[in-house]
Amino acid sequence: MTPRMLTRAAVAGVAAVALLGSAACGSGFDDSATDTKQSSGPASLQILIGSSGDAETKAVKDAAAAWAGSSGNSATVTPAQDLTQQLGQALAGGTPPDVFYVDAARFADFASVGALEPYGDKVANSDDFYESLRTAFTYDGKLYCAPKDFSTLALQINTDLWAKAGLTDADVPTTWDQLTAVSQKIKAKGQVALALGDTRDRIGAFMVQNGGWLMSKDGKQPTADTPENLQALQYVKSLLTNGYAKFPKQLDSGWSGEAFGKGKAVMTIEGNWIKGALQNDFPNVKYKVVPLPAGPKGQGTLSFTQCWGIAAKSKYKEQAIKFVEAMTAGEQQIGFAKAFGVMPSRQSVRDQYTGAFPADKPFIDGVEYAQGPVNAPKMDSVLRDLEAGLQGLTTGDPKTILANFDKNAKAALGG
Question: 217: which of 106, 287, 290, 305 is 20 to 30 A away, CA to CA?
Fold first, then answer.
């Protein structure tokens, strides 16, 4: 995943999903899924991926070719120009690829209309996937698809600017109170303490740190308007109004990682994708990664993940499951990690991964206390409204933002 993919996730492909939803209501994915005639012979799998770049495309194509060569099947990997749009159109049109990436933020839209085969527990050692990732791809009690990989948020600290502010390793913040204290010291030295993304995909981490979140675990009920979430947004608002934190646009940047790379903030909150972005664009920045400061209720972060979806209409479901097993095998996941920087979704290769990438340990440790995206269908407009509210948090009312989310979410889910 790239930072641009993640920051666009809230608004990407709305029309495509609407198309999928309307088409699915008419054609009945659930009915057709059970009628799809299966082929037991050699499969010709079509695989659609949302690639982060040439390295990922090459790695997946090579892995698919190796599986095809050893299994007697064929596998054609196509990198999408716009995965959400192309996938939505293919599913709605009745000609989906057999296997495809599904983002956790879009998963419920596809699962709720019967477009996905719920094969997750048929994958060998499916319990080896991290529990929070399994939860992200569970709908109505069924694990639909195997988590491909994941990212979490952590705190990045520019070590040169940190020292310039008179801070040492002993000052690294592990609580909200400590974050406020170091921010005061940094501001006193004329610097901005924290570059913070103005979306739920960043600010939401503070809710989790205070024991809150936007939706119930089963994705059936909105849970935004609570004292826990209110306290979290009030804390973030205090960082903004005191000038300790600033949104990227206030720092003449497109995203927090850019502001951090330009030296416009001493700290930022981003995922492990920032490593490649800084290497490419700001190779001279020295920084370290630490866990996000804990809130009153403990540690919390957000996870971002994709799964290998299998189309309910595929003629090659059994072969597709074997393909996914090969792509999510531990050694293959380590190969993908080395090729394009993702973190394996299997617990069994955790030590192997952290041994190869010790600086990423705070990211992979975060999976134990991470919250996945909103896991409910038909939430696009609701989430867009929430984003607008969060972007105006500096002068806005946190209580109103949360109450509006609950009201809009109830209407969407009820409809």
Answer: 290
Residues 85 and 140 in one domain: yes
Residues 136 and 167 in one domain: no
Q: What is the pLDDT of residue 415?
A: 54
Q: What is the pLDDT of residue 128?
A: 98
Same domain flag for 241 and 342: no
Number of domains in the chain: 2
CA distance 72 to 74: 7
**Contact at 8 Å (CB) between 162 and 189?**
no
117 and 58 part of one domain: yes
**Dihedral (Cα; 80, 328, 257, 135), 10-degree rounding:** 100
CATH number at residue 12: 3.40.190.10
Average pLDDT along the chain: 91
Q: What is d(CA 131, CA 372) in angstroms, rounded to the nearest whole number? A: 11
Question: What is the pTM assigned to this prediction?
Answer: 0.89
Range(s) of the domain holding residue 188: 153-302+377-414
Same domain, 363 and 239: no
Q: Given pLDDT bands bounded at 50, 70 and 90, which one contains residue 38? A: confident
Give the pLDDT confidence of 229-257 residue by residue, as tens digits.
999 999 999 999 999 999 999 999 999 99
Residues 6+ apart with CB under 8 A from 47: 60, 64, 75, 76, 77, 78, 97, 98, 99, 100, 323
Structure tokens at 59: 């790695």
Q: Are residues 257 and 392 in the same domain?
A: yes
